[in-house]
Design a protein that fits this description.
Elements lengths: L1 E10 L2 E11 L4 E5 L6 H8 L7 E6 L11 E4 L11 H12 L8 H6 L15 H14 L4 E5 L7 H18 L2 E5 L3 H7 L2 E5 L6 E6 L6
Parallel strand pairs: 3-7, 3-8, 5-6, 6-7
Antiparallel strand pairs: 1-2, 1-4, 8-9
This protein binds adenosine-5'-diphosphate (2 copies).
The site of one adenosine-5'-diphosphate has 10 residues, from helix 1.
EC number: 3.6.3.-
GO molecular function: ATP binding; ATP hydrolysis activity
Protein name: Aliphatic sulfonates import ATP-binding protein SsuB
């Protein structure tokens, strides 16, 4: 579970994130929505353990975020594939870091994402949707403690976006990985997020936290 208490981030004495207090349950998807510049990416970078420049308390399963101590998957808006690596090597990137090059290629995941025939291609030879599948394969292969997604589907056309949201749900249901999804699509937040955090414009504060009624049981 993720616990954030009294988080403040400043750049040049200007508050970027102001007094963020949040709890995210283990194995849930939390969607964060808010205007451009409100600090969503900053929040993700803190959770990823790559931005330590903050005040307040941030814990992932009781520990400070650290890419060395936790396995953290990251899916950025532009898929984050390395153009000089083939699909199979892009998929293996995170696993090879985690297991020091002793990993099997995750064929079941590759099968379920329909990537078998694309393994020897380079990212530029793939459609946007296909690149997104590679990015998802790379992240889910990690069996991460935490999955961070920064506008993951925003570069896709509307039809592919809806298709990829369902692909994500399918993968997520198999692993139940705790996920923080940053999106500016309200429909996407409602479709994927059990909890929806609405942020204000700069300085980014939590305006409202909504327990998504579409997930009520
Ligand atoms: P969002 O993801 O919600 O669009 P960001 O987290 O990218 O917001 O940025 C929040 C604010 O912080 C923006 O006003 C941005 O210009 C500013 N910002 C981000 N990174 C830096 C930095 N390294 N130095 C100074 N200002 C920054
Ligand atoms: P989408 O409808 O998902 O956007 P595209 O029209 O981009 O798909 O691509 C359709 C097909 O063409 C895909 O199967 C993809 O593998 C192939 N393709 C796209 N771009 C290239 C390329 N630069 N080189 C080789 N094949 C490509």
């Amino acid at each position: 579970m993720i616990q954030i208490d009294n988080l403040f981030v400043k750049y040049d004495n200007l508050n970027i994130l102001e007094d963020i207090n949040l709890q995210m349950a283990e194995g849930s998807v939390c969607a964060v929505i808010g205007p451009s510049g409100c600090g969503k990416s900053t929040l993700l970078n803190i959770l990823a353990g790559i931005n330590h420049d903050y005040e307040g308390k941030v814990f992932i399963n009781g520990m400070k975020p650290s890419p060395k101590k936790q396995t953290i998957g990251f899916i950025p808006q532009n898929y984050g594939l390395l153009p000089w690596l083939k699909v199979k090597d892009n998929i293996m990137l995170g696993l090879n870091i985690k297991h020091k090059n002793n990993s099997q290629i995750p064929m079941d995941l590759i099968d379920s994402l329909g990537l078998n025939k694309l393994l020897n291609r380079y990212p530029k030879e793939l459609s946007g949707g296909q690149q997104q599948r590679v990015s998802l394969a790379r992240a889910f292969a990690l069996k991460a403690d935490l999955l961070l997604m920064d506008e993951p589907f925003s570069a896709l056309d509307a039809i592919t976006r809806e298709e990829m949201q369902d692909v994500f749900i399918n993968l997520w249901q198999q692993q139940n990985v705790t996920t923080v999804l940053v999106t500016h699509y309200v429909e996407e937040a409602l479709y994927l997020g059990q909890k929806i955090v609405v942020m204000t414009a700069t300085p980014g504060k939590v305006y409202k936290i909504i327990d998504n009624p579409l997930f009520a049981d």
